[in-house]
């Protein structure tokens, strides 16, 4: 199990042996680092620490493997995977207060001229039905919208869309989730196994399952952090709790989830663990993850 960890600088980490590797060609110094996976390719975002309320755009790189220098994708305030698994959507800054939405290949080439966008827009995920964005992020008017990126037309809008995958959207509600089938507009409400505001949702690579993390940073108003992972079958809308859940953790905000190409759910939380739905237990890596990790890591395949 090999991950790219969001350390400064980023670390390639083998969860079984503890072997560590560096990523060449990135800016040095103490920086903010985040990583996400686009198809099989990890994408790195790195920027200097913010000065007060002023933050520079991230420098964005596609990490194509240990034998190559990462490909620069330019600078952006926000980055989201393209539906083709070979491109990203970026919110680029043209001048102070002026930004645009642009589609860029992982080889670094612009796919079209881009369109005007608010610098507060957060791009999140593209599917064949559109690009999921968060509008007016950080304000009272924040709303999630699935748009046609070519025209800007709204396909679906909700106060909180937790995830977009394949033909489905997963919407948050006060006491339940709603799964919307974009092919026919049908929606179905799903009672969660736990009542929690805004759980973290991560669909698998083929859009058939979603891992839902009902983690809480303050269990029963204490300083105890807990994680409780469940799987939602997006076909029959049934729940399956992952083994050994819930558990306490001290890494809740700096750990996270990813899906492997063969359908394993990968958890990086102190160590790397993998679980294939239906297995009785997690498979645990032997090596401890470096404490310098800033945000969750991602699988390198």
Q: What does this entry show, briefly?
A:
The protein has 301 residues and is mostly beta strands. It contains no helices and 30 strands.
Question: What this model shows, in words?
Answer:
- With 301 residues, the chain is an all-beta fold.
- It is 0% helix and 50% strand.
- A four-stranded antiparallel sheet has the order 3-2-1-30, with no helix packed on it. A four-stranded antiparallel sheet has the order 4-5-6-7, with no helix packed on it. A four-stranded antiparallel sheet has the order 8-9-10-11, with no helix packed on it.
- 36% of the residues are buried.
- The model has no long low-confidence stretch (mean pLDDT 93).
């Amino acid at each position: 199990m090999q991950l790219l960890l969001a350390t400064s600088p980023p670390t390639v980490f083998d969860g079984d042996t503890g072997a560590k590797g560096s990523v060449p060609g990135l800016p040095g110094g103490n920086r903010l680092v985040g990583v996400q996976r686009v198809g099989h390719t990890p994408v790195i975002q790195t920027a200097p620490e913010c000065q007060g309320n002023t933050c520079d755009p991230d420098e964005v790189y596609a990490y194509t493997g240990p034998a190559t220098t990462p490909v620069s994708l330019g600078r952006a305030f926000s980055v989201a995977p393209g539906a083709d698994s070979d491109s990203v959507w970026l919110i680029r800054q043209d001048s102070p207060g002026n930004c645009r939405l642009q589609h860029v290949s992982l080889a670094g080439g612009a796919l079209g001229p881009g369109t005007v966008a608010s610098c507060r827009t957060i791009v999140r995920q593209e599917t064949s039905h559109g690009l999921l964005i968060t509008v007016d992020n950080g304000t009272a008017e924040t709303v999630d919208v699935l748009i046609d990126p070519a025209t800007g037309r709204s396909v679906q809008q909700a106060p909180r869309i937790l995830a977009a995958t394949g033909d489905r959207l997963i919407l948050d509600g006060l006491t339940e989730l709603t799964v919307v089938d974009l092919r026919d507009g049908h929606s179905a409400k799903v009672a969660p196994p736990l009542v929690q505001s805004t759980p973290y949702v991560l669909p698998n690579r083929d859009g058939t399952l979603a891992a839902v993390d009902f983690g809480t940073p303050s269990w029963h108003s204490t300083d105890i952090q807990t994680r409780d992972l469940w799987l939602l079958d997006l076909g029959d809308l049934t729940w399956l709790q992952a083994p050994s859940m819930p558990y306490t953790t001290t890494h809740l905000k700096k750990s996270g989830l990813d899906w492997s190409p063969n359908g394993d759910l990968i958890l990086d939380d102190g160590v790397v663990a993998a679980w294939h739905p239906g297995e009785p237990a997690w498979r645990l890596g032997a090596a401890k993850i470096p404490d310098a990790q800033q945000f969750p890591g991602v699988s390198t395949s």
